[in-house]
Amino acid sequence: MRTYEGKSEVKIGHLIRVVIPKQYDFEPQIASLIELVANSLDANPSFIEINFDREKGLLEVRDNGVGMDESDFKEYHNIAATTKGKGDAIGFAGQGAKLALNFCSKVVTETCSKSYKGYSEWRLKGDDAPYRIYHNKSLGLNHLGTKVTLYLDDESRSFYTQELIEQILKEHYFPLLDGALLKAYTGEMPVLGDEESTSLRIYKPRYKKGLRFFINGKAIAEQPIQDMLKSKKKISLTVYTKPKAKGFFGLAEDGLPEFLQGIAICTYGKVIERTWFKKEPREKQRIVGYIEAPYLIKDGAVTTDKCGFQRGNKSWEGLFRKGQTEFTKWLEEIGLAERLPERKADFTSLEREINSILKNLPELTFFGARTQRDVPFRDEKGEPRELWNGTQKVKGTKGGETEGTGVLVYPGDELGRAPTGKLGSGPTATNHQRTIRGGIRISMDERPDLEEEAWFDGETVFINKSHPAYSKAERKGLLDYHFVKCIALRLINFNLDRDPEPSYQKAFELSQRFFRLWGETFGTRFFSCSLWRHDSHTKERRHDSKSNFTIRSF
Hints:
The chain has about 550 residues and is an alpha+beta fold.
């Protein structure tokens, strides 16, 4: 029997104990299991079995995939190496085992492929992680595939439970546990009337042999999400006119489990991130969504650990914007979008002043810049449109001051204060590139269910009128400062989400510069935030003069 002993050429204790675990937002025990399952999925198995024995302190993950050859198995133990090509994998070779070294006395890996079989013992010892490989020998794996066994320390024995393991699978791999969604990945023929899986196929089947999960011998399968929904809407997101991501938004009759709430962005069935697309819809507990976007891995949009998206990546930001547009439209259709209260404020003057400040802050000029966008123009030979998209009265103008033929725009992207039409058939139109006025917009909403003072969806800052800070600012006559503070902090937070290297120091410095510009430029200038009250009996709008206020320097 041949053996091979090795360790990293550099001291890697700090890397394994600190650097790698910091890539994740959860405990190493959870991250390790997620990665072990991801590595198994990359081997194209038909089953993944997880066995946990608390008394013996053992946790094993076994699959019947293709296994590793001798070269791959050796590289598996290299801290800095991966045997996987770009765009091919949802796991990082050996990452699950490397994380497990933090809470295990040793990690044993067995593998069997068509050309090789062997096993290794790996442990963390001081600043090193020595391992020994035993070639041409198996400890019990008698089929093609890989088995990783974790010899848990006392704390991790108590940490894991069968219920927790099942919950981790549901949170991070629910599309592969959902019988209907799974068909989009296996290439199975859908049952009669099941069009969902067919509509989601946007790439070659990933798990052609089918796929089942087991925990201690028990098969894990979830009720199809579609069965829980009161309504749903299929979506397709395109890149250069080609569909690159597909999925659906759904509204359940009752509240959903927490791990299903929100829109799951997935690659090959692994949930990379859940998002609300910077929106704050009502009745969040009833909303679920799923978008499969495998191209994000190929475009380098996914982080190395495949548990998040790269900040500033153009492919991810492009999908985010398209997804946000579709999500906003759907929320409006079902009546759960953010909405203005009966008392509406005219923030025109404040918007103008904030947007002027943004032009002088390089980090925030993105929000005030003019952009090129496709805008539909009336055209008898064009495609039919829906009046839901709205109608701008005059071609190419902000408010309809000059003559023209009319332009259709979506209410969130209007060129001016264009009136919007009702849902229904509309005229034909053809897209043309137009320069769209940049800048943020400001609105108010009453959301006692939220802790946030305000939120920003990339276009509009919503001030939460139900927040206690708003009420106190109103009593003290400090609404002016409250509005500006909320707007500034939301914009800065949004900017940090896009920054590849965010830091508290950057946020602090940007905040200081924002308020300095505001104080120097507009600190003593008067603006009016006129609140109007609609009287349903007289059909008149009455002006509340008490709502005028002056911005003061502080």
